[in-house]
Amino acid sequence: MGLVKQELGADKGAAFDAAEYLKAVPEPKKGLGRFGELFRSHPYVPKRVHALRLFATSALFASVTGQDTAGKPTAADIDKQVADLISVF
Hints:
The protein has seven helices and no strands. The chain is globular. The protein is mainly alpha-helical.
C-alpha cells in the first residue's frame, strides 16, 4: 500500500482500490509502456508488488518466517522469475 500511495501521491493515494490498481500490471515486453520504463529508476509499482509476492512464496521466506520449506521455489528460481518479470525486453 505504501508503494502505491507514494506512486500516486498523497491526494490520489488516499482513495484507490489496491486490487484494481494491481491488476494493471503492464504486459512485460509488449506495448509502448516498456520504453517509458527504460528511463525510470525503478520498475512499475505493480511489477514490484508482484515480485514481492513471488518472494513470499520462496523457500527463503518460508525458512525466515518459520514455515515449512518443502516444495517451495529456491532463491535462484525466484530470482529468475523476478528478472523475467521486470525485464523490459
